Amino acid sequence: MITNYQLAAIYFNLCITQKYKGQKLKNIPKNGPTAKHFNNQFEGLIESGILTKYQAFSGAYSIFGKNIYTEEEIACSIDPFAYISHLSAMDYHGLTDRIPKILFISTPSQKNWKDFALKQMHKDLKENLLDYQKKKFPILIKIPMGKIGKKNVNQFSSKHFGAFKSIKDRTLRVSTIGRTFLDMLRKPDLCGGIYHVINIYKEFGQQYLNLIVDEMNLHGKPIDKVRAGYILEELCNAKHEAFEKWLQFAARGGSRKLDPTEEYSSTYSERWCLSINVEI
Question: Which of 22, 200, 212, 255 has its CA 20 to 30 A from that of 1?
Fold first, then answer.
């Protein structure tokens, strides 16, 4: 998969350097790269079948002869700042036996996305960015993704960008295991529901305890640490020195709930000052 911005940036840089892999290029416009010349070359690639417009996405194309991409890879190709998250990440990491019918991805908030895009364009075009913009070449924009293939896409946006890893030799980014466990507590409704989340913690919490604790310490809010502490200590029988430190965030007299999506319950953890609003 490739976007018209990516194609334009490649074209622009080739016209500036006039070389490709050390070989001098021919038929470069004498006056430098122009949007008209690029559009002509671009249309030629489409007419020859090298590029094919992908579904109804504006500015996204598949390349002839390339391997078939998964829905996850397509999403990460179209949105360079998105990564697979929530139930889809749980599936990737082998944490769930459920096959997601929806593709869950996380992407920066609209404002942050634009900031990321400008930084990426600076990285791609360096000192030539201003000239690129003046000549009206395609810029890096966010392409809406409601559906990829037969799979609906759920885009979760937050001003706090999560931790993810890039998969070698693939256009694929996935939330780390630690981050995935954190997301389970914040948005259980995007992770199969709170009961599924609790079962995953029970099954894998001990195995990934250090990764979970590290993520909670780095990016967890007080309520995240309280929820994680309760589940890991009370339901998973896990032990870790971090739990005692997390207890400082257990605030008496509040209305904190284990499941953020459900109503408050009178069933209560005295140690963690947490309403246990699920049937344990």
Answer: 22
- Residue 152, CA distances (Å) to 36, 72, 86, 237 in order: 36, 12, 14, 38
Q: Which residue has the tokens 């390339």?
A: 66
pLDDT level of residue 53 (50, 70, 90 thresholds): confident
By DSSP bridging, strand 102-108 and strand 151-158 are: parallel
Question: In the numeric block, which tokens belong to residue 18?
Answer: 């006039």
- Sequence-distant (6+) residues with CB within 8 A of 135 are 33, 34, 35
d(CA 239, CA 229): 10
**Looking at the DSSP assignment, which residues form a beta bridge with residue 148?**
151
**Per-residue pLDDT at 253:** 67
Specify the DSSP element, H or E, that contains 20: strand 19-20
Cβ pair 133, 139 in contact under 8 A: yes
The per-residue pLDDT for 264 is 86
The DSSP secondary structure of 122-143, one letter per residue, reads HHHHGGGHHHHHHTTPPP--PP
CA distances from 179 to 76, 131, 148, 212, 221 (A): 18, 40, 24, 7, 13
Burial class (CB in 10 A: 0-12, 13-18, 19+), 26: exposed
> Which backbone phi and psi does 167 adopt, to 5 degrees?
-85, 130
Query: Any bridge partners for residue 53, and if so which?
Result: 61
Taking only Cα atoms into account, the Rg of the chain, rounded to an integer number of angstroms, comes to 24
**Can you give the pLDDT at residue 76?**
95
CA 29 to mean position of chain CA atoms = 39
**Least confidently predicted of 51-55, 203-207, 256-260:** 51-55
Asked if residue 69 has pLDDT above 90, the reply is no
CA–CA dist 115, 8 (Å, integer):
20
One DSSP character per residue, 154-186 reads EEEEESSPPPEEEPTTSS-EEE-HHHHHHHHHH
